[in-house]
Specification:
Blueprint: E1 13-14, H1 18-37, E2 43-48, H2 53-69, E3 72-77, H3 83-95, E4 101-104, H4 114-118, H5 132-140, H6 148-159, E5 168-172, H7 179-188, E6 192-196, H8 203-207, E7 212-215, E8 233-236, E9 240-241, E10 247-248, H9 253-256, E11 262-263, H10 270-287
Amino acid sequence: MSSRACGRASVADTLSGKALAAEIRADVTERAAKLTAAGTTPSLAIVVATDDDGTLWYVRSIVKAAEKVGVTATIHTVEPPTAEAIGAKLTDLAADDSVHGVILQTPLPEGVSLTDLSHLLPAAKDIDGASPVSAGNLTLGLPAFAPATAQACMELLAHHGVELSGKRAVVLGRSAVVGKPVAQLLLQANATVTIAHSRTADLPAVARTAEVLVVAVGRADFVTDEHVAPGAVVVDVGTNTAADGSLVGDVAAASVEPVAGGLTPVPGGVGPVTTALLLRHAVSAAEGTFDR
């Protein structure tokens, strides 16, 4: 990362995730091949309880990516998509020694809670860090798989040489999937962390205190130049579909680029790293280790 991250930049550096994702996939391919040669093919099960087109496209993309690196990935569609049926499927997969990693894909049907079901995932198979046990271990600094999107933010920052120790970090969003876990990871990297959200008074002013700003609010183009301090590094976790069908982030890039020191693109930033990390977590689970 250039020194412009500490001062005003005329155009933000693009913090792409493509090269990092390729590096992770290469490592996964090598490790998966060694496991397979020794008689254990890494396997991943994705439990799906929705017919949402975007979700189905995403999980199919994970399967294709897994095939390329030597990980077996299987989609388990639950019908009818009730809490009882989803729970039964998770229980079966948890007991199946041939399955090393399990993902309960969101969104879930109305009235079905991820928190209520994710406790059925053993921490050793919970490769997207969804369960209360995984979340607790992460908070305490114990071995755990971190949610892949939160970890992707951290690995992208490290890949681009962004120093976090002693820096002021603000996380916009408090979800259990991204906001809270990325805040924990930032704390473990010795950043001073503020979590802001929809009830935060004068949100732009709070966001402008950040030297590193992580945005995970789920609203297209929500963050503009008024939220960003000159030279700040901005990580855009958002994936929203624009009116023209294109993919856009939570950050209005055209507004923020003249102010920020660095900005992750959408697409091509956090997304490809997240998918690569899910595969790396699956291989780590097959090895009997955690990925942190």
